[in-house]
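Intended use. Records like the one below are meant for learning the mapping from a protein sequence to its folded structure. Do not use them to infer anything beyond what is encoded.
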Amino acid sequence: MSGLRTTRASVTFKSPFRLSVFDEPLPAGQYDIDTEEEAVEGNERTVYVRVATLLQLRTTGKVQTVTIDPQELATALAADRDPRLMSPAPS
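Structure written out for the chain above:
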């Protein structure tokens, strides 16, 4: 029996941040992140493999769901917590 499961988490950015799927920086604030995982059954146990990471972008009266790179999200969150991790601006 295989299936898909979705886990929701909330993340908070203290500062505006960038993700490559958006042309402009996203504002500071709280965002819901959905992680979709597919069950892969083995002989002894079932494991779940991530198949998508989705950011819920809320605007006036609407919710837009955008597929994002989970590693890019982790990097943006780390940089938000410690600005020294930000990459230098291009010169």
